[in-house]
Specification:
Number of helices: 22
CATH architecture of the largest domain: Alpha-Beta Barrel
Shape: globular
Amino acid sequence: MTISKLNASAATLTKNRTEGSVSPFSGMCVTCVDGCVGMCEIGKSAYRGHETIYPQPFGIITTASEKQYPVDYSHFSIMGTAVGAVGVEADSDKAIFPAVNLETRLGRDGGIKLKLPFIIPGIGSTNVAKNNWEGLAIGSALAGTILTIGENVVGMDVNSVIKDGKVTDTVDLKRRVKLFQDWQEDGYGAIVVQANVEDTRLGAQEYAISELGVEVVELKWGQGAKDIGGEVKINDLAKTQLLKARGYVVLPDPDDPVVIDSFKKGTFKEFERHSRVGMVELETFLERVEQLRKAGAKYITLKTGAYRPADLARAVKFASLAKLDYLTVDGAGGGTGMSPWRMMNEWGVPPVELHSLTYEYCRKLEARGDYIPDIVFAGGFTMEDQIVKGLSLGAPYVKAIGMARSPIAAVMVGKTIGKKIDEGKLPVYVERFGNSVEDVFVTAAEMKHRLGDDRFKEVPAGALGLYTYYERLAQGVRQLMCGSRKFGLQYMSRDDLCSLTREASDISGITFVTELDSAEADEILNMQL
């Protein structure tokens, strides 16, 4: 079975000439012909070189791996039951799925309260995040969920004021934070500011805490999409020179006269801006946490990527020692910005394996009496069944699920529908629901009643898209949990799942389907009247 795709992908705008006959181990056409203009990735690399490393076109897409991992969340099945109820009275008139409580709390003091167990992990300086931030921020705030401002936002803002190497004013970060804060209701949800090496040097988190009223900050070790720093493409020469002066790695060198001449001639149209990789050490990690607490951070979190198991153990242990409020563990394969395409497919620990290890490491620390931070699982979650499986596999440590690509997709679709409504050009498959925002978005009437006519008019269609997507997920999660007779997130457990394959069972410790409930089944079968 081929589980990787080589040499041709929609992500790199490449394809094989002999699409029906491709070598499974090299990805090359079975017959590579002299005279081909180079439609495949090898061919395109012959004339565009390093540009072909990255998914294209940059700035208007999100990307994720095409690799079929040997085990994924589809290898588990959610277990329902015909008896009882946990969290409500076992009464058919009370144990109904709308009664399932999806509120959750994060943090050492349980002070981060969410209406729904959803988090958007760090999405930062990429154009696709910036151009859709209004919908992401307002939609997240209205839903009472967490939104994380990712790395490099301060450094990428040409209007940031930096004195003696530290930021003293911004436009973009200030806008992103304020959009969320202006729509936050009753203290639900949170806006989180993340930092990488460059952000830390600029003092971005200290600025966010002292000047913008941010309470939650996140340290970043990495993400599931790649094991190097954040990357973007830039088509503005002056901006690339500014970013190089601010300390970023910019390729090719925007100060080189030959490069400048080549760019102006149009030989290439985009520079690459890269962030540095961090160097994790326990002492400096604990020092940084203490610095942030002294700066006024109310909650501190850590996001780690799909690194080798020893690094996951470091993340869990360091978060325990520092008494962090939550830890996000992001499995391999996903991404929201610009990640090397082959790296996204071929590096890192996949979600099921990474999440299973996280559970095991937390269990070992708990057995020793150590502090366990709340855990957030991320990595390819999009629908309610996957969310329930992630919460169950990581129970009781996992309190929320992180998603990025799917919320951005919901915002982009909502935004596009809003534009088409304004232009009077709705496609027929949408127009059948109506011709106005109130007709098309099924949550619009509820939102209008909740906010009032004037406030509702200020809600962008992208935010309605995210809110409506979350509403669908919430109802789906409630239905699945009701079927398992669990009426609150705190009651979810690993025996709400079974493994459908032996390999999934070996990796996760989740019981194989035909071995589940074996002792209880024997007791039932041996019952006598």
